[in-house]
Design a protein that fits this description.
By secondary structure, this protein is an alpha/beta fold. The chain has helices spanning 19-27, 54-62, 76-88, 107-112, 128-138; strands spanning 5-9, 32-33, 41-42, 45-46, 68-74, 93-96, 120-125. Helix content is 34%, strand content 20%. The longest helix has 13 residues, at 76-88.
């Protein structure tokens, strides 16, 4: 497993209502042993956006500076530019339901039709290889 910079965000007010999703987010960073390396356990790096901006973090993924993000219960306009920029740069962008399962929704349509109280769950990956590595842990 390479050192992947992955951001997962779930606002604290949604954690009690969604323990299964919170557990899935936590499994992304679970350490695992690699017998061929003998020393220690390794896991993905929990990388939070220094700026506090989900949109900028998604732009960092699109620009090759970060690897993935799974953002839950986010206002669409807080990440719209980053999500669409990443999608247009060829990054896999997946909308998720409240259990963390992929939906067939179109990100641009969901953002365009969002109302004031709309919240979305989204995963953005640098490429399909990163998507597989992260999803293998997220859905384990």
């Amino acid at each position: 497993m390479p050192e992947l910079f992955v951001c997962t965000i779930m606002p604290s007010k949604y954690r009690k209502e969604n323990p299964e999703l919170k557990q899935k987010l936590d499994t992304v960073f679970a350490k695992q042993k690699f017998p061929e390396l003998k020393d220690g356990e390794y896991g993905m790096i929990d990388a939070k956006p220094a700026s506090g901006s989900s949109a900028l973090y998604l732009c960092d993924i699109a620009d090759g500076n970060r690897h993935a993000a799974i953002l839950t219960f986010q206002s669409p306009w807080d990440l719209a530019v980053g999500a669409l920029y990443a999608r247009d740069r060829g990054c896999p962008v997946v909308l998720l339901d409240n259990k963390g399962m992929p939906t067939n929704d179109d990100v641009e349509r969901v953002i365009a039709l969002a109302k004031k109280d709309t919240l979305i769950n989204i995963a953005v990956y640098a490429n399909t290889a990163v998507k597989k590595l992260v999803e293998d842990k997220f859905y384990a």
